[in-house]
Amino acid sequence: MADESHSKLAKLGDALKPSTIIHHFKHAHDHDKDANGHGQTKGVHSGSEETLVEGERGHRTKEEKEERIRAEQDEVEQHRQEKDQQAAMEDDPDMLERYGDLEMAGEITPLEEVVKLDVGRNVTFRARIHVQRAVSAQLDFVVFRQRGVMIQGVLHDDCSEHMIRWVERLPNETIVQVSGTLRKPPKELKASLDTPLELSVENIYLVETSNSLPFKLAGSAPPQSTRLGNRILDLRHPSNQAIMRIRAKILQVYREVLDKKEFMEIQTPKLQPAATESGAEVFKVNYFGRKAFLAQSPQLAKQMAISADFGRVYEASLTFVFHP
Fold it and tell me: Is residue 322 part of a domain?
């Protein structure tokens, strides 16, 4: 029994020897090589070829998509040119002069002043097309927006069908110059606008068109990542414009009150070489290869200013720390 146990242990020891394991692995590899012709090398090459094929297929798909988009754009442009040619033949010269590309700027009134005017005033202003609602070939509602201020315009029987169709083709955020007369609408406007009046559009000219907007300002808000990735467009939204204007007005009121109380406005450093408040969370940044920290509060700088005989000081911000 002892000899038999010793024999089993010896066999197990031989099987676990590195040289034995390597021998078995090499034998199995050679067997696969004989069976496949090229062994493992063939598998690697096959994977590389498949990856290359997938890459080429993806590249072709992207090119086909771009080509399809270009073809659609060319088709739309051709359709527009045909409509413009048809309008040139059917509309009278006076009507043709009422729309199209802007040739002469003329005098304009800011939209924030237009919305304060009374019924019957004839105005000319520049604004963006915020949104359109095409009802028919004889009726189109357009909301014009500039600096967060909005007014509704209407194109109706006084405009030709070609003029209305031309305006309908203008994409949102296009800048136009508009002339018309302020009037009281037949029904009370329910949209969030800055005047109860609407503009009866008489002339409308293209100043600058917009292209490939990542999202629409009218309607539900897109994801935050999309908004932050297109921040200029996002800041045009009336709600963002209102937020910025409210913040500016708050700071203006604070300045007026504190200036009357003989406070002096100062500007404190926002980057510091060390944390100024123990136990507080600090934000470390790399400043041209040196370690720096964002200031947690202007309080220390204000105390230094008071000790330097500045008297009452403040710093314009939406968070204030005042010192008498």
Answer: yes
pLDDT at 11: 56
Q: Which two tokens stand for residue 121?
A: 């005033």
Distance separating alpha carbons of residues 125 and 280, to the nearest angstrom = 53
pLDDT, one tens digit per residue, over 200-252 is: 999 999 999 988 888 888 877 888 899 889 999 999 988 888 899 999 999 99
DSSP state of 196: S
Sequence-separated contacts (24+) of 216-223 with Cβ below 8 Å: 216/131, 216/172, 217/130, 217/131, 217/172, 217/173, 218/130, 218/131, 218/143, 218/172
The one-letter code for the residue type at 93 is: P
Same domain, 296 and 265: yes
Cα distance between residue 176 and residue 43, in whole Å: 63
Distance CA 300, CA 278 (A): 12
What's the start-to-end Cα distance of the chain, in Å?
Answer: 100
Q: What is the pTM of this model?
A: 0.67
78-102 pLDDT per residue, tens: 666 676 777 677 778 888 889 999 9
Domain contains 1? no
